[in-house]
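Form 7-S
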Amino acid sequence: MKRTELNLTERRTIEALLHRKVNVTEIARRINRHRATVYREIKRNFFEDNELLQLNGYYGMLAQKSAAERRARRRKLVRIPELREAVIDRLQEGWSPEQIAGRLKFEGHVTTVSHETIYSYVYSPDGQSQALARYLPDRRKKRRPRYARTLRDMMFPLERSIHNRPEHVKDRSVFGDWEGDLMIFRREHGKTNVASLVERKTRYAVLFRNNDRSSKHFIARLMNVMEPLPHTARQSITFDRRIEFSGWRKLKPGIGTEAWFCDPQAPWQKGSVENLNKRARRYLPRDTPISTFSDCDMKAICERLNGTPRKCLGWQTPTEAFAEELRKLG
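Output:
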């Protein structure tokens, strides 16, 4: 059977050999482990005391205790039924593990959980017995190794952070800045989903159906929908870091629209579209067979949403506010 975790005997051996100044390659040979495993173990569990420098070093018992605590954290969703139920409920609502973990922290729960722990539980035997992977935005039978995944920082670089948006986008003083998201439906209804867009100043909503979850398909569909608008009416769109938005680089050369992205696990930073999704779910609950909805059906829902007076608009409707801004563009 393949060994993954070091045991206490091995950790004590590492401690003793390090004390005798034996190099890592030789230590790895003696405990029959790869030297990278030993390097990683020492780096992860190296004890440092800034006041008593003579105590700095690797200690087998401390390393074993730290490893046990890490395993306990990974089992948090097994040990705490209330936390497990909260996570599963949100998964079934279409939330990603990043959104769930971030929201639990934002709400100030006593017990929180990382998105990696949620993914681990989803693909564990417990999670597989409940078929939880079917609720994930990017579903697989099993998860790819962590270090084989594409880094999100490469897809969504720092310069595109929401914190670098111009001030007029933040304060809603200028027309033409949008927020975008996807509304996901039950797996048995296929890959069809609904893209939701809202213009930040006027709260004007646009919903359109996608027949595919790929980024290429979504971006192409988005550009077709936005292109008829005057350029100043489609200056930017703020997204979260879903994989479906990874094709954002096509927007600027394609339709002249900038893209901005929320912080990891912080979908509430695009609160306007999150609020739109909540209102749209009245007409499009998660169990909706969305593939049966026509473009006319989607338009009717948009008209209903945009025809409701809003306090933040001085009781104008989004339709009226949006039309007024278009008239100003002349």
